[in-house]
Fold:
Amino acid sequence: MAAHHSDRQVLRYLPVLPAVVLLAVFLAGPVVWAFHASLTNAGLTGRHARNPEWVGLENYQRLLQDPAFPLSVVLTVLFVAGSAIAGQNVLGMALAVLMRRARPAVSATVGTAVVAAWVLPEIVAAFAAYAFFSRDGTFNQLLGAFGLAETDWLYAVPMVAVILANTWRGTAFSMLVYRAALNGVPAELTEAAQMDGAGAWQRLVFITLPVIRGSIATNLMLVTLQTLAVFTLIWVMTAGGPANGSTTLPVLAYQEAFKFGDIGYGTAVAVVLILIGAVFGLAYLRLLREQKP
Amino acid sequence: MFPRASKTASLLAAAVLVLAACTPADPAGGDKTIKVAYQKTDSFTALDTMLQEAKKEFEAANQGVTVELQPIQANDDDYGTKLALALRSPSTAPDVFYEDTFKVRSDVDAGYLLNLDSRLASWGDWATFDNAAKEAGKADDGGTYAVPLGTDTRAIWYNKKVFEAAGVGLPWHPSSWQDILDTARKIKAANPDVIPFNMYAGKGTGEGTVMQGFYELLYGTGASLYDQDSKKWVVGSAGFKDSLTFLDTLYEEHLAVPPAEALDPNVWKKVFGEWFPKAKLGATVEGSYAPSFWQDGGSYAWPGYAQEMGVAPFPTQNGAAPGKVSMSGGWTLAVGAETKQPDLAFNFLTTALNAKNSLAFTVASSQIAVRADVAADPGYQSANPFVKDVSGLVSVTRFRPATSDYPRISAAVQEATEAVITGNRTPEQAAADYDTAVAGIVGGDKTIRK
Structure:
């Protein structure tokens, strides 16, 4: 009986085996490869391209001494906090809440406008954002029309420009997640609270948000991980400049691995990025777990 | 039994899925295909035209052989990256490819290029190639691994209309840096709306910053980037600081573009497409290929360029002999080390670079000829009014020290110029930062104070 029982246990996992194998090959594989490469001096060209040598933790030691690295970590966290957590997440939530109260026509128009940015391929969105913020761009023309001073956004405040651009591009996703979540909040709950005299703000904070906490955690996790990996948008808009002022970790990893041909060092940066993603992921997983009674 | 059978079945299914995903499609045409990788952009189609022509010629002469052209649409930096990635694996490596001269050495070190010595020995045309240009295809072991397509030089391109309006005597021949500053100030005083003298700086313009800008300054001071004799990188030179100071003066006095504009990677397009044709720019340092943008069919066609533009050699700092400075780069064709048909690949290379195709390419892309027969051709000499001037600079030109550390060193120089023009660092501070960066890149024992 015991043997039969464990056979059944194994059998239960069989249907997911192909998926697990695919994940292992195409997802875990590159991660393991990146980790391995980060411990070598593999190069894109030069003699280390042919015969990479094992260098242990040398790349990581170099990373800690590299003045560009701490700046890059700070910028990455700033980018995620600004454009994912504060930008896409909060704005998406606000839009979802407001759209429930707005007239259907207004709600549909806003929804279309927001989703339009999300539908664009990343490279197109990046060029659009570049055209908007560049020196002779739309934004400066609008400011000029109102008699306001023009600014070189991509030069003077590159992080603000890329954070705004990424917020613009990604808010639709959060908005859609929260609209679905809000539809799942039982109407009786909010009505009961209203009967007890709770105002709109109180109903949101004490009823709606706790109920959709699971969706909030899931959404935060998804937008955070996606934003951590954003490369094209920044590369097209500022290429990490000026003076490394918008060089987030993906941009730094690209520059090291491909511009300087130092694949070992570039993958070390990528591994740090994976670790930061893992930290965020674990934090959100805790948030998800704690909600259960 | 049943559970075991289904277990096996799904394992098999998984294995099939994985295998199907991993197996590359069979290349069409079997093994008689020559893959050719090269760069093609909106503003650079001359090579594409030439290789299309060579493909026709070669396929007609070699029945059953297909030439598969693989244009890569990318700027110089991204092209280099894509090519290097393709070369890493024998299954994606092209048989023949367009290779930047300054990547030859490190790509030979990486084992990507085929040694061509024995084949070149039996190629009659090889004798017509210029000796200096042949050097660009040589690796550290003395062997030749790449055949030059053409070369280039750098000079000052200036707009005669702007100069005349400011009362500057023509033709203009600055004999020192001071001459340049004096003229630029004069232009500025005459018309504050034009950019008097621009020089690329910062990381935005990448290699353009150093090739068309900083190195003309540095090598004109008597200093250099790399000491050939000791094979060490030069740090702490007065010339480096002086060069940064010159850039600082240009940008600080608004003789060049605002720093925000200088850091835009697309600024060169404005130089060629907008500022020169509209007489908004006095002068800049640019390559001998400049007319290729303006001539008929170029990306910024401008019929008046032959009359309105002038060219002058970049002077040394104080006019010391030889009085002028230039930098050269250029591109080559190379054969992949892993090619299955080295003879066919090499034969294609010789077809692509025969006298007829070389001439067409050299003229269309405003290159400086590397074949004696092309250089002597009247079609080449009359391709544009500036051929003689820019070809003459070959006598003083220099090449980059193309070691595998070079890309990082170049980035450090670009960073130094960026720090100076944005006002973040003084020239002294930026030079000191550069010295630290170089020691960090190559190690303190590979640097030399000069």
Remarks:
- The radius of gyration of chain A is 23 Å.
- Residues 152 and 216 of chain A are 36 Å apart (CA to CA).
- Chain A is about 75% helix and 0% strand.
